[in-house]
Amino acid sequence: MTIDETTKKLQEAERHAEEGDAIIMDTILKLNFENSSETREDTFFYINRIRTKGYNNAIPKKLKHAKYHSEKGELVQMESEIYSVEKYAYSLGIDVSEDINSIKINGYKKAIPKKLDIANQFAEDGNANMMDTYLEKVIKLAYKTEEEVPEIFNKIKTKGYHRAIPKKLKMAKEYAQEGKVSSMENEVQQTKEYAFQAGVNIPEDVNEIRNSGYSNAIRKEFFPANHYAKGG
């Protein structure tokens, strides 16, 4: 790389450093200088100076973006911005833990009602497994914020289990009709668990379903064998 080319690339990287675009700045520096055996020693002085400037300017921008996503309860995006801030701050030897903790706590608080809304949607559909997944997220977020789980938590949970019971029974009946006793028993056990969690009695037709399932399983085993034994 000629001196003019080196100067242009350094100026381009510095322009992005001024704007706090650390990712683009780093890309230019790595592609053109850091992996090249032709890079002169004095060039590394300018590279480090540019990088320091870029990271210093990027930190407040990334913190601003993290706060924006925090306010919306968008945890994945928030954590992504925080990761960049922590990386830049570590490189500069700067402590940003107070700002980061404040942003995280706010994000967790804002995310709780969003997770509850999603859990409630699954509860409405009787999808207790997915409901439980999001309610577990609520518990973890509440723990991180040192706050109580909202009162609506238990209402959502109970509703989800209530609505899941008939769906599980339906699946159990279908497996029973096919003589698939293992799958049937899985659905029956989940039905019993949901009934317990919801504080309701186990449906009366559970035993009828199980009896039907085992009867059909026996027929599936017996009749094909009987058929072939007769030379059918």
Shape: elongated
Largest sheet: none
Number of strand elements: 0
- Number of structural domains: 2
From the alpha carbons, calculate the radius of gyration and give it in angstroms. Answer: 30 Å
Order of helices and strands: HHHHHHHHH
What fraction of the residues are assigned to beta strands by DSSP? under 5%
User: What is the tally of helical segments?
Assistant: 9
Poorly predicted ranges: 227-232
Which percent bin holds the helix content?
over 70%
Write down the overall mean pLDDT. Answer: 90
Helix-and-strand structural type: mainly alpha
Structure in words:
- By secondary structure, the protein is an all-alpha fold.
- It folds into 2 domains: 1-110; 157-232.
- It is built from 9 helices and no strands.
- Helix 6 packs antiparallel against helix 7, helix 7 runs parallel beside helix 9 and helix 8 runs antiparallel to helix 9 (206-229).
Write the layout of secondary structure elements.
Elements: H1 3-18, H2 22-34, H3 41-71, H4 75-92, H5 97-124, H6 128-145, H7 152-178, H8 181-198, H9 206-229
Helix pairs in contact: 1-2, 1-3, 2-3, 3-4, 3-5, 4-5, 5-6, 5-7, 6-7, 7-8, 7-9, 8-9
Keywords, please?
single chain; mainly alpha; 232 residues; 83% helix
Give a nutshell description of this structure:
Helices cover 83% and strands 0% of the residues. With 232 residues, the protein is mostly helical. It folds into 2 domains: 1-110; 157-232.
